[in-house]
Protein: Strawberry notch helicase C domain-containing protein
Organism: Populus deltoides
Amino acid sequence: MTKWLLFTNLGGERRFASIVAKRLESLGALTQGDRRAGPSLSAYNYDSAYGKKALTVMYRGIMEQDTLPVVPPGCSSEKPETVQDFIMKAKAALVSVGIVRDSVLGNGKDYGKLSGRIIDSDMHDVGRFLNRILGLPPDIQNRLFDLFVSILDLLVQNARIEGNLDSGIVDMKANIIELQGTPKTVHIDQMSGASTVLFTFTLDRGITWESASTMLEEKQKDGLSSLNDGFYESKREWLGRRHFILAFESSASGMFKIVRPAVGESVREMPLAELKNKYRKLLSLEKARSGWEDEYEVSSKQCMHGPNCKLGNFCTVGRRQQEVNVLGGLILPVWGTIEKALSKQARQSQKRLRVVRLETTTDNKRIVGLLVPNAAVESVLQDLAWVQDIDD
């Protein structure tokens, strides 16, 4: 039986979704790792270890104990006064709901500057934060919540890059997933006769210009588009290149789905303020097409760090086409061997064991197994062959 949880776009109301998500996630396989399960609820579980850390980072930034790691919504990095204005309003808002205590107005050079303290137990209490901001006007309430989520997204992304993010069974998504050749048997268990098999897949995550244009046209045809829907170009160059995206408003007011030429639709939606701060809307479809097709082509064999990336072909960040190696079949008896082989890798992100699930787009063949980083394939296969020799 399907149940629905409805809430408005007020930031504080996300606490209801957070409570439900946290309870359901405690059921484990019912929400993840089971083929009957729906999408992961982690996107709504703000009261996680990363959520607590994000709240602490945000509070320290607002109290001017540290620099905020992201530009607050509605502010511009090119106009520091907008950030300072937000901090003043945010601090006053937190005073009004009792999160900032013992507040005083400064004198002398700090005249009119609000100061106070947040007690230690509140610094990481996400539930209290979401509950208290419900009493704030919608504008500052949503700006505080958007800032919290932006910091949370940054922390999670950094953890993912560093290989420290534990996300259970991960569904690897792409527009095209194809199995390369015949799976290779790399180990046979002498007791059961069961085999461990190496599958090699080719993934293409990109979105062609034609597909992106069709997505926008269908949105406009259905009368669901907003004035801010369309193609955008980054205001700043990154590693010598400007980047192009398609943005269209999602069901959550003020939030935009982002589609990129190289990696398709982003999991994270972007607030309108952030979109306008980082990108400019393109009125010329020809310029949008040229930039989109160029980025689509370049990303087929090259990561977003450019041709001089230190990791070379092993880096897949922002690369459209990837080769993915997965060990399937009998895994538990050789788990320790695989873990030991991965521990020899230089990069932290390549040392962790990850369980992934893929489904080929041509024949819908589904494989669940251990992801083996490309740089570690040779080491893993050598260790498995050594174990096989001992068993024989």
Observations:
- Residues 26-41 have pLDDT under 50 and may be disordered.
- DSSP finds eleven helices and 15 strands in the chain.
